[in-house]
């Protein structure tokens, strides 16, 4: 291990230890801890804060320098933010909330009790209250809730020198100045110019000669769709417009990346049949964990009744060849795994716009071919071992069933997310329960039909 790496790890451990000690609030150590935490690596500080209970977190948080405390608050999970602000003295809470950007402040106030939220709003200056109210006027989970009204914009009639003066005048208030919207007389965005271009251009040139076509989003757009626009275009910030195409804010790259992180965590959770945790695991109660899983478990139990009905229908075949029952878990388990693989691949492809709902027939053919290929490979692999447990004809039933079930499962796993997207439903929400139900039920029907044909039942 290099000396630089050892030094960095020692500094990280010192920061973690300082945060852990800060929760105890030892009077004699206060200055030493503040000195360590001053300029400390904030992600490490936040990681330790999120591992504490509410009282310890509030105690340790009060030891942070003021500038660090604001940034640390912004980095905490929303539910943890709300708990922390509730646990802090009113005076400190008001100071912290006043320091936040309007979009960050609006999301925090959303998670607070109504009375506390109103008290904090009343403590703001008229300008800050107006900016926060503007963000809160947008619907939840739209990009409007993530847009900052603190921005620099310039008229299309302005010169480069005028634009640079505007940037310098508002640098302290604006959340970003790296992309400057250019607007017309009605405050509609006609272009965007980067700060770099302004600095490299003759100050006397008109702005409309150096601006480029704007990449913009509407405040009513879904937050995930808007975040993908920022990511796909490699933009540092994009203008946010209202329904009349007027500029209302800017959506920055750091907020876009956070939206994508939230959405991906939500999709991953729903793909395995649970809800996304809104706080770190160690600070989530067992009741919250159970609540996030119980709904999906109930849905899957209801769906499983279809499988029970299929078994009941083919009860006579099972009684005639009891050994068929031995391989039911293998069959539906393999089908479920293949369906899950196809679904996760498709959900990811949809997320990055690699496929679209209109590609459903191409996806169907590709996944059917892939599933049949896997089925043949697994059937060959399973045929010989199956003969150790049962007769060769039953082994043949198992192999043939694997081929068909794998083809059906892969096709369902690829198509169901596309159909869900076409219907305006989150693919991650429906994929897990629908694929499980489809594969279990159809897999058993296929199995018993093939058994009836091969064994003459």
UniProtKB/TrEMBL annotation:
The keyword Transport applies. One of its GO terms (molecular function) is metal ion binding. Residues 147-209, 210-268 form the CBS domain. It is found in: Cell membrane; Membrane. Keywords: CBS domain, Cell membrane, Magnesium, Membrane, Metal-binding, Transmembrane, Transmembrane helix, Transport. The chain crosses the membrane at residues 294-311, 323-347, 368-388, 394-420, 432-455. It holds the Pfam family MgtE_N. It is a multi-pass membrane protein. Its main location: membrane. Gene3D superfamilies: CBS-domain (3.10.580.10), MgtE N-terminal domain-like (1.25.60.10), SLC41 divalent cation transporters, integral membrane domain (1.10.357.20). InterPro entries: CBS_dom, CBS_dom_sf, Mg_transptr_MgtE_intracell_dom, MgtE_N_sf, MgtE_transporter, SLC41_membr_dom, SLC41_membr_dom_sf. Belongs to the SLC41A transporter family. Homodimer. Acts as a magnesium transporter. This is Magnesium transporter MgtE.
